[in-house]
Amino acid sequence: MVVKNTEYLRSVVSGLPDQPGIYQYFDSTGKIIYIGKAKNIKKRVASYFNKNQQNRKTELLVRNISEIRHMVVETEQDALLLENNLIKKYQPRYNIRLKDDKTYPWIVIRNEAFPRVFQTRNVIRDGSSYFGPYTSILTVRMLLDLFRKLFKLRNCKLNLSEENIRQRKFKVCLEFHIGNCLAPCIGNIDHDRYMKNTDQVKEILKGNISGVIKYLKDLMRQFSAEMKFEDAAVVKEKLDLLEKFQSRSTVVSNSISDVDVFTIDEESDFAYVNYLKI
User: Fold this and answer.
1) CA 98 to chain CA mean position, Å
2) Strand, coil or helix: what is 129?
């Protein structure tokens, strides 16, 4: 029976694609026991069956595989995100990593009177807006630094209710004095103007960042014209990272609920249109 099953699995492996994606191993009861990612699905899965396993856990895993399934994605980064999402959902017994929610960082716009924008690794259903997950912590830090400089949002944990602000319960902190905050705590910026700033942050995080990129390019040219080359270099670095951010993955979405998706696949003189409603 083991030999027959091995022969069947080898035939499955031979038909796997040489593309990036994730693979899933199922046991005889139909339960997922392992989820992995690969730059080349066929090559990675074949490695489980083409050599003697030195690792005891891997050897036991292979013995318990009864079925193999896979999903193809565009890039290896997409595979990483999809693997992370599925492992957290199914909790396979042979996956010892990525089992908790503290994996990739998210950016949250907090559901508050004057929202804070910060990094988190825990998604809480509290009405806040979450964007991510991101595979690059450098991108997250760059974006938060960019928001701080462009919009000067608060980062304190004060309860900025209308009543507390009116009663002047708070004093400005160092962040205001060094130019990183507009001090909503003392009413230095009204609620409507502050919310417009957070709306712009949302647009950037959704990928609508052409306006911000134009602003940075103009700023870089201004610094260069004023011979402030070090400042121009800093802006250029942020600009490069922001342009890379434009092409971030959409494999995992925390906000998609009702959309229509379509693709066009061209082949010589013909084209095929596929529709999918989510």
Assistant:
1) 15
2) strand
Dihedral angle sign, alpha carbons of residues 154, 155, 159, 165? negative
Take residue 96 and report the two structure tokens written for it. 């010892």
* pTM metric for this prediction: 0.57
- CA dist 136 and 20 (Å) reads 19
Extract the runs of DSSP E, i.e. beta strands, from the chain. 21-26, 32-38, 67-72, 106-109, 117-120, 129-131, 260-267, 270-277
Element spanning 230, H or E: helix 229-245
Domains assigned to the chain:
2-90 (3.40.1440.10)
- Three-class DSSP category at 150: helix
105, two tokens:
């960082």
Question: Which amino acid type is present at position 265?
Answer: D
Contact indicator for 153, 109 with CB cutoff of 8 Å: no
pLDDT digits (tens, 9 = 90+) for 68-112: 999 999 888 788 888 888 888 888 988 865 455 456 789 999 999
79's CB contacts (< 8 A; 6+ apart) are 20, 21, 22, 37, 38, 39, 73
CA of residue 219 relative to chain centroid, distance: 28
pLDDT grade for 277, boundaries at 50, 70 and 90: low
- Identify which of 147, 148, 118 has the alpha carbon closest to the alpha carbon of residue 212: 147
Contact 70, 23 (CB under 8 A): yes
Element counts in the chain: helices (H) and strands (E): 10, 8
> Which DSSP string corresponds to 63-114?
HT--EEEEEE-SSHHHHHHHHHHHHHHH--TT--SS-SS-SS-EEEE-SSSS
Cis peptide leading into 92, omega within 30 of 0?
Answer: no
